[in-house]
Please model this.
Amino acid sequence: MILKELDSLKTFLEKPRNIVVIGHRNPDGDAMGSTLALYHYFNKKGHNTTVVVPNEYPDFLHWLPGSDTTCRFDWQNTQSKKAIDTSDIIFLLDFNALHRVGHDMQKTLEKYPNDFAMIDHHQQPDDVKYMYSDVTICSTCQMVYQFIEMNNDLDLIDKDIATCLYTGIMTDTGSFRFRSTTSKTHRIIGDLIDKGAENDRIHNNVYDSNSYGRLLLLGQALSNLQILPEYKTAFITLTDEEKKKFDFQKGDTEGVVNYALSLKGIIFAAIFIEDNDQNSIKISFRSKGKFSVNQFARNHFEGGGHDNAAGGKFDGSIEEIVTKFKALLPEYKIELELSYES
Model:
């Protein structure tokens, strides 16, 4: 855990400030939940707060309280840059390095003259003035709760803040099933429910709002599933053509990689998603046990994340990444075999 200058940050925030809160590119539930929770919290403390997201986020998160106040950097560029330029401090949530916001927004942030504060749970964070980093915590939303707790402000958590935090914790823990979900996580979830988070409604809004096209896309993804039993590995591919065939929308592939990981005997799973707009392949990795997909992604696919959940990218075709991926596995065969060994 890294706690850096948090007392100084608390002193700095004793006066009303112009604050910008930013999450990573392609925001997920934890990124949107944490940024919006902090938005509501800071506004209740008397600050002028703006959430700037690098690009669009999934429809199933648009219901979150405060979602309609966010600025999209790729779409509302002038408005976003104005908020950044007039801010006294920028909070970086749910990412550990500026390149995670995308190239254009990164260039803007690199010119920022004031200080950054980071709240994040990913490994190897960039160095900024104010930092709360803990790779053992399941989600950035749990960290925001604990940040509010450090400031003795748990009484300020209302239904809107509780809803945002619950959403991020739920999504980043796979509905509380991942190993990083601790007894403390459950105690925090209980408090958020007591403060107004409607757990059934939140779950339904996130997981039970599938479009017909999304379900057909899932069927296509599962039909593309390949298993490599000698490496306890499974992977899924999706091409741009397949995505367009089923009217792909942002967020439609969220969680699909977990189907590969759910197979009996599989401890390493991947999904390779073609993105012709970015001229690259988007990758998600998942694992069980001690096999670190964070290190695997860093070593080979310009990525990273957590030990059991990470991402990356590849500049090339689906066929090329599958070939590369298969060629790498023999190097990791022993690690994969021993992943569950003590």
